[in-house]
Amino acid sequence: MTVVLVFLTLMVAVVGWRIARDTGARRVDVLAHEAILLFDADSPAGATREPLAVADAEKVFRGLAAVPMDLPRDDDFVPVEVRRVTFSKRPAASLRFLYAGDAYLLVVSARDRLLGNGFPSAFPEGSFVSGERGGKSFVLWDREGASCILVSDVDVTQAFDLVRRLFT
């Protein structure tokens, strides 16, 4: 009888662990899909975007994101648009920018807004999650009380390197 109870307990633990792990993977897939849709959504047809001053973009971005985040002061970094978006049914800030001529979208949401209270991280297995969906690459990470995702058309290794160099 004891052996059967131990076996059943282990079986329930393994099933529970797999469900929890798969839930995290699904959550990342949903976040990546939504960020890619935001990346693909452009301003109305015919709208031209003038580059923004980095200091002005940073001020607006910090206000919308409610998270302290310094934007790079690199000559290749050109902010194009800052706006409030709804991301995962929560308010977030998005920054559309060019880096060395390539287009990127950074979406930042305060962690408690995006994941609800009590969750320490969007993905408990590690610090970064990166991947490709539909020809777009994404990098998802947590920092300073915020969940961040970067989306671009560039290769995932290039996107990850940009996050590592400029935003962490």
Indicate the proportion of strand residues.
Answer: 25-35%
For the CA atoms, what is the radius of gyration? 19 Å
- The percent of residues in helical segments reads 25-40%
What is the first-to-last residue Cα distance? Answer: 53 Å
What's the CATH class, please? Alpha Beta
Q: CATH fold name, please?
A: Phosphorylase Kinase, domain 1
Poorly predicted runs of 5 or more residues: 113-119, 122-126
Please give the count of helices.
4
Mean pLDDT: 79
Structural class by sheet pairing and helices:
alpha+beta
Task: Give the SSE order as H and E letters.
Answer: HHEEEHEEEH
Number of strands: 6
**What's the architecture in CATH terms?**
2-Layer Sandwich
Strand order of the largest sheet: 1-2-3-6-5-4
What characterizes the major β-sheet? 6 strands, antiparallel
The geometry reads as: elongated
What's the CATH H-level superfamily name?
A: MucB/RseB, C-terminal domain
- The tally of domains stands at 1
Characterise the protein shown here.
The protein has helices spanning 2-40, 54-65, 111-115, 156-166, and strands at 77-87, 90-99, 102-110, 128-133, 136-143, 146-152. It is an alpha+beta fold and 168 residues long. It is elongated and about 75 Å long. Residues 113-119 and 122-126 have low confidence and may be disordered.
